[in-house]
Amino acid sequence: MPHAAPKLNAFPVFARVEGEAVAIVGNGEEALAKARLIDQSSAVLRIIASDAGEELLAFIAGSGATHIRQPYDASQLHGAVMVFAASGDEALDSRVATDARRLGIPVNAVDRPELCDFFTPALVNRAPVAIAIGTEGAGPVLAQMLRGRIDRMLPPSLGRLAALAASLRAAAERLPKGNRRRRFWSDFFAGTPARAIEAGEYDKARDAALDLLATNAPAAGHIALVGAGPGAEDLLTLRAHRLLLEADVIVHDALVPEAIVAMARRDAERLPVGKRKGCHTKSQAEINALLVELGRQGKRVVRLKSGDPLVFGRAGEEMAALREAGIAYEVVPGVTAAFAAAADFELPLTLRGVTSSMVFTTGHDLKGNSLPDWAKLAISGATVAVYMGRSVAAEVAGRLIEAGLSPDTAVAVVENASLGNRRRFHGTLADLPSLEARVDLDGPVMTIIGDAVAGANFDHSEPLAARKHEGRAVRAIEGVAS
Ligand code: SAH
Q1: DSSP readout, 344-373?
Q2: Which of 215 and 247 is assigned the larger pLDDT?
Q3: Could you tell me the sign of the dihedral formed by the alpha carbons of 394, 395, 396, 399, in that order?
Q4: Which of 93, 194, 231, 354 has the fewest Cβ atoms within 10 Å of its own Cβ atom?
Q5: What mean pLDDT is predicted for residues 187-203?
Q6: pLDDT in tens, 28-52
Q7: Mutate to test the pocket of ligand 1, among 446, 447, 448, 449 (most ligand atoms within 8 A of CB)
Q8: Dist. CA 369–CA 377, nearest whole Å
Q9: Which domains does the chain have, with CATH numbers?
Q10: Distance between CA 165 and CA 163 in Å, rounded?
């Protein structure tokens, strides 16, 4: 038998309060909390407090609330559309509740659910949009947690977007009912007008909305090149998270963990485009073409890349292809692997008096005869972060030493930075070549070289080159892992 959905004992509604009086009885914290809540509306606050505490007094002065400085009397409630009994005194609160009921005014008594006609929600305020969370008093802490989560999901500019929508409602009503009108609103709330509002470009938002009203053309596609961060889900930015929830299609690299891809809308299409050794992958040209094609189809796409999209992410090529095809795009930064690795090692990338510059490199450009610029920077003291550096570790170390960098220069290596299974290694430039033989490291690896590395915390790292007998040591480690 199907289970009936549990029924709510308190049904949420939105009460009209504009210009109406809301009465609050109380001198202290409880009254202040309710006053702050109601002050988020355009109601006229009437605070009945014969002996208001300092904070409440300051609030009243700042908010322009009406202050009745007399002992409580039922006549003070007249004309209010809502009453709060918030005196902290049980007998007085009961009296207030009884009086309010007699006058036909709904009442809320703080911490006395049995006296309440209504409950106040935890509120996410994006006026005119409001999200009210209620638990029928079961869990105020739960309500606050949910409030925080929802608050983070919604752009601060949501209210402005809703206000623009309200101003266009009459014009939209003139569109043919059904598909055409629905499409206008979905393009409005998810397309160019919404993005322009978020960017603070209000005129552009209005123009784009008027275009949508006037044309029958399908919505333009949009590609967001989004940094997924180094791997830990909670290092994703709030903006990245929001875009993931809005996207129709997610095009992601293999390095982006499943848990992050899973944050997208359930019905979003997910297209892995590989880039992991040994897997079937699309060429960069195919990826560019795919993004252009999705854009032409009017899709909202999140192109999800590990770390920051502009750091060794081939974003340059993708942006050029999109520009050439006239498809709108934006870039959302992410925490790059070097920063995550440095954090895992408590490693200052710049260190007063030691180094004031840093280099992001791959080391793959060290193969030719001439030293690239970054090698010279390394020698003059910059902190060097080497991406994709495992297979060129010996080359990097050899060439830098040859060029004059001390073999004793400190080196830190992090596999799977930011993730629970991360591993940290420390050593010197002379030890670095041993990295190439480490078959036990199968996650992404970040190498950081420079004097600033000496400022890191080595409490949680293993020596990079402690194991002279590679084969045996690796077997021992694998034995522990399995
Ligand atoms: N755009 C990415 C880099 C892509 S290149 C960024 O900004 O981080 C891929 C290389 O990044 C890997 O070979 C490795 O060197 C590094 N990398 C990515 N994630 C990593 C992680 N969690 N730990 C260590 N290195 C990582």
Answers
A1: HTT--SSBTTTB--EEEE-SGGGSSSSPPH
A2: 247
A3: positive
A4: 354
A5: 91
A6: 999 999 999 999 999 999 999 999 9
A7: 446
A8: 17
A9: 21-120 (3.40.50.720), 158-214 (no CATH), 222-335 (3.40.1010.10), 338-472 (3.30.950.10)
A10: 5
Atom of ligand 1 nearest to the CA of 422: 23
328: nearest Cα among 201, 187, 222: 222
Distances (CA, A) of 120 to 83, 96, 447: 12, 17, 53
> 144 — phi, psi (to 5°)?
-65, -40
Cβ neighbours of residue 253 under 8 Å, at least 6 residues apart? Answer: 272, 273, 274, 275, 276, 304, 305, 306
Q: How far apart are CA 416 and CA 447, in angstroms?
A: 12
pTM for this predicted structure: 0.71
For the record, the structure tokens of 237 come out as 């930015």
Helix, strand, coil shares of the chain, percent, nearest 5, are 40, 20, 40
Q: Is the peptide bond before 128 cis (omega within 30 degrees of 0)?
A: yes
Q: Which residue type is seen at 256? A: V
- What is each CA distance from 60 to 46, 63, 122, 172, 314, in whole angstroms? 9, 5, 22, 42, 57
**358-386: b (≥16 Cβ within 10 Å) or e:** bbebebbebeeeebbebbebbeebbbbbb
- The CA–CA distances, whole Å, from 177 to 139, 168, 261, 306, 317 equal 43, 15, 36, 43, 42
Nearest to 333 by CA among 350, 361, 313: 313
pLDDT value at 475 more than 90? no
Q: Which of 445, 449, 461, when mutated, tests ligand 1's pocket best, judged by the most ligand atoms within 8 Å of its CB?
A: 445
* DSSP 3-state of 418: coil
The angle subtended at Cα 216 by Cα 211 and Cα 218, nearest 5°, is: 90
Q: How far is CA 66 from the centre of its chain?
A: 40
DSSP codes of every residue in 102-147: HTT--EEETT-GGG-SS-PPEEEEETTEEEEE--TTS-HHHHHHHH
CB-based pocket (< 6 A), ligand 1: 230-231, 255, 305-308, 311-313, 336-337, 340-341, 387-388, 414, 416-418, 444-446
For the segment 383-434, what is each residue's pLDDT rounded down to a tens digit? 999 999 999 999 999 989 988 999 999 999 999 999 999 999 999 999 999 9
CA of 6 to the centre of ligand 1 (A): 47
What span, in angstroms and rounded, lies between the C-alpha atoms of 244 and 300?
Answer: 10
Pair of tokens at residue 338: 């070097």
- The whole-angstrom separation of Cα 297 and Cα 277 is 31
Q: What residue type is 241 in one-letter code? A: H
